[in-house]
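Why should sequence recovery work at all? Because a backbone constrains its sequence more than one might expect. Tight turns favour small or flexible residues, buried strands favour hydrophobic ones, and helices have their own preferences. The token representation captures these environments compactly. In the example below, the structure is given first.
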């Protein structure tokens, strides 16, 4: 399902216009992204948790030259499905 498909489905389920549904979906994504940018986690009970995961610095190898290199620490967004969502998918 693409973002535009999601917007159409939200419009159908809520009775909103397509434009209002698009604004609502974009607002939800913006709020989640802003919270993750601040390092906060977003918990949607029954659905899941969006959080920021930290990856430690580590050593790696350049596949072309075989030269050892240092890979810096990074932060990456993550999602953990909630109990209810896992049960629905199962």
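From this structural description, the recovered sequence reads:
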């Amino acid at each position: 399902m693409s973002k535009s498909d999601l917007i159409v489905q939200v419009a159908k389920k809520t009775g909103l216009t397509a434009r209002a549904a698009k604004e609502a979906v974009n607002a939800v994504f913006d709020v989640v992204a802003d919270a993750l940018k601040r390092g906060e986690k977003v918990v949607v009970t029954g659905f899941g948790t969006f959080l920021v995961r930290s990856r430690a610095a580590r050593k790696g190898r350049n596949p072309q030259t075989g030269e050892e290199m240092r890979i810096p620490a990074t932060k990456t967004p993550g999602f953990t499905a909630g109990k209810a969502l896992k049960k629905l998918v199962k």
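A few observations help interpret the result. Residues 10 and 16 are 8 Å apart (CA to CA).
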